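tokens incoming
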């Protein structure tokens, strides 16, 4: 490897983007050391946040099959009652969600209905920003998990985001989640040695250079922690691959309290039934398989999975057999620690806000309970005052 000065490397290297302020880039060989030396305490709650990008159609996910207004609004897009996985005499799940139906019957699935925020925005970017920052009133630079990181210490593996892009929810003012990219290759021996040198501080360093060195020091901590992990086993289902990695981390005892995973493609403006059913099938396979895999492990009872999308869809189908951007939708919370059932009121299909469902539950109440009951922290610095638990954590 050619000799490069530390200053030149700090200024010119793309490694800064991967390992610096935007998040600590990590590889497969990086969690075993921490798992063996400082494992997660027994009984500590573990939160897995699954983001469904694109705006999932909630009405064709949790289906009001007994409501004539549903069928009238979507004469060719709606599901007939006999196609639906009935949960009660009014509502049922999309036929692709057989694993979630099993979780419901086991009372390990909570469905929070009508979740949204005040003055909804139909933009993917703004609405996702609101969900990930927990700030509907004004844009802020930090995410809700990032603010939890800022408030609870400096361990770089408290939160891990699986994927090549660090989501806004994982960004704090002082700390960010570690980023574990399933597609990345381990650093070479020469590059690892170079990074080790970059982590050393020098008396003449400026404040900015010192901050960068701290970032590289944290990266070394992370790289010792994520050892012996292998890529997810399902290339055909990216969410299953991500959750397979999360399962490995949990079973190894990695001291991570929050994981972030994602699945995209839910912007179904056309040919929605086929597209959404395929996506929900992948989601169902990944989530139910993940929870089933952990159900017999001692740490499985501590795992809670949240699944949400940035908004639901319009009640009425469009001319392309799809739906356009809407507002409120259902949120899934699943796991052995969950008190299964319905939470929040079902939005009415005839009492609409300019064609959109009216929100009945503020999403920050969902976050409040997850922070309070799963991550065991004070939710107020993260989601603000005036919020409450909904009661879905047993």
């Amino acid at each position: 490897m050619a000799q490069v000065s530390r200053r030149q490397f700090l200024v010119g290297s793309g490694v800064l983007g991967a390992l610096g302020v935007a998040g600590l880039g990590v590889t497969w060989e990086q969690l075993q050391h921490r798992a063996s030396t400082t494992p997660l305490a027994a009984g500590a709650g573990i939160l897995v946040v699954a983001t469904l990008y694109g705006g999932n159609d909630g009405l064709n996910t949790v289906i009001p099959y007994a409501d004539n207004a549903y069928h009238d609004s979507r004469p060719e897009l709606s599901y007939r009652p006999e196609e639906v996985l009935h949960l009660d005499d009014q509502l049922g799940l999309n036929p692709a969600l057989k694993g979630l139906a099993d979780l419901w019957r086991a009372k390990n699935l909570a469905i929070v209905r009508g979740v949204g925020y005040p003055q909804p925005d139909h933009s993917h970017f703004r609405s996702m920003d609101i969900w990930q920052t927990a700030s509907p009133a004004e844009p802020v630079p930090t995410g809700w998990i990032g603010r939890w990181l800022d408030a609870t210490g400096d361990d770089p593996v408290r939160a891990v985001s699986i994927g090549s892009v660090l989501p806004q929810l994982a960004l704090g003012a002082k700390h960010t989640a570690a980023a574990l990219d399933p597609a990345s290759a381990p650093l070479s021996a020469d590059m690892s040695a170079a990074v080790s040198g970059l982590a050393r501080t020098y008396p003449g360093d400026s404040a900015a250079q010192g901050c960068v060195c701290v970032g590289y020091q944290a990266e070394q901590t992370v790289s010792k922690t994520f050892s012996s992990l292998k890529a997810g086993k399902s290339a055909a289902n990216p969410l299953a691959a991500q959750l397979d990695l999360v399962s490995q981390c949990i079973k190894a005892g990695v001291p991570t309290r929050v994981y972030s995973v994602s699945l995209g493609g839910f912007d179904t403006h056309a040919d929605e039934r086929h597209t959404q059913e395929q996506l929900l099938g992948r989601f169902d396979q990944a989530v139910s398989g993940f929870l089933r895999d952990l159900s017999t492990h001692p740490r499985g009872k501590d795992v809670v999975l949240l699944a949400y999308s940035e908004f639901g869809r319009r009640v009425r189908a469009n001319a392309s057999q799809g739906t356009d951007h809407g507002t409120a939708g259902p949120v899934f919370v699943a796991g052995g620690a969950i008190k299964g059932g319905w939470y929040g009121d079902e939005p009415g299909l005839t009492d609409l806000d300019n064609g959109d469902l009216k929100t009945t539950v503020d999403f920050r109440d969902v976050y409040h309970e997850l922070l309070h009951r799963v991550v065991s922290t004070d939710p107020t610095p993260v989601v603000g005052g005036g919020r409450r638990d909904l009661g879905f954590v047993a």
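note: The first strand starts at residue 24 and ends at 26.
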